[in-house]
C-alpha cells in the first residue's frame, strides 16, 4: 500500500490512476498528516468457472461433495438438478 498526499495525487492524477489499474496497488490519500481517502483497484473480472471455484472452497465437505456429484450427473444425463444441495445460507 502506498501513501501519497492529496497534492501529489492532484498533480499526477493520470499516472497515479495508471498505477492503480496496472499494478493493482492501493493508495491512501493523506491531508495534513491524516488519512482521508483510499484508492482501491476494482477486482479483476472472473468467469463463471472461477466464481464457482471460489464458492466451492467455502462449502463444507458434504455440500461440496453433493455439488460435485450433481455437476457430474448433469454432465452424464445432459441435465441435472441441484435439489440435493444444502443452502449454505439457511440456518
Offer a few descriptive terms.
about 90 residues
Question: What's the SSE blueprint?
Answer:
Layout lengths: L1 E4 H6 L1 H11 L3 E5 L2 E6 L8 H9 L4 H17 L14
Give a written overview of the molecule:
There is one protein chain. By secondary structure, this protein is of the alpha+beta class. It has 2 domains: 2-39, YefM-like fold; 48-77, no CATH class. Helix content is 47%, strand content 16%. Strand 2 (27-31) and strand 3 (34-39) form a beta hairpin.
The fraction of residues assigned to DSSP E strands is 15-25%
CA(first)-CA(last) distance: 38 Å
Give the overall shape: elongated
Structural class: alpha+beta
What is the total tally of β strands? 3
Helix content: 40-55%
**How many helices does DSSP assign?**
4
Element order: H for helix, E for strand: EHHEEHH
CATH class of the largest domain: Alpha Beta
